[in-house]
Amino acid sequence: MQWIMKTFQELTNEELYGILKVRVDVFVVEQKCAYPEIDNYDQFSLHYFLKIDNEIAAYARILPKGTKYKEEASIGRVLVVEKYRHKGYARELLNQIITFVREEWKEQRIKIQAQQYLKSFYASFGFHAVSVGYIEDGIPHIDMNWICR
């Protein structure tokens, strides 16, 4: 089991392919949602993922302030592959990313677009809703912010 963080330029072809595959498997196939998965943010993101037995088990991308949002860093494409769910990897992933953004980037705010059914999960990390619910790509979402206290 190994947690890995890389820029887009540092990813190997195999790693990039694996990341795109698990993102499509979860967000497009599993959630039955056709949307533009390749969105031109990957090139500016840090890619944080867990490999278990040479498979990507969990993943998220971290976007610096000034990319997706002008004033906040952002976390997106958060996932755990189905066979690795309910083992605490999502919680570990978010804890490590929040710590990284706060300590390494010295950012005090993170903004996310959360799927609405995960609102309480993100709230458990200190995120709070800053929008009413809305539909994006056919799925209920809510904007949430985390502010360092």
TrEMBL record:
It comes from the Bacteria. Pfam families: Acetyltransf_10 (PF13673). InterPro entries: Acyl_CoA_acyltransferase, GNAT_dom. Keywords: Transferase. SUPFAM superfamilies: Acyl-CoA N-acyltransferases (Nat). The keyword Magnesium does not apply. Gene3D superfamilies: 3.40.630.30. Signal peptide: none annotated. Residues 6-149 form the N-acetyltransferase domain. GO terms for molecular function: acyltransferase activity, transferring groups other than amino-acyl groups. This is GNAT family N-acetyltransferase. It comes from Oceanobacillus piezotolerans. The lineage of its organism: Bacteria, Bacillati, Bacillota, Bacilli, Bacillales.
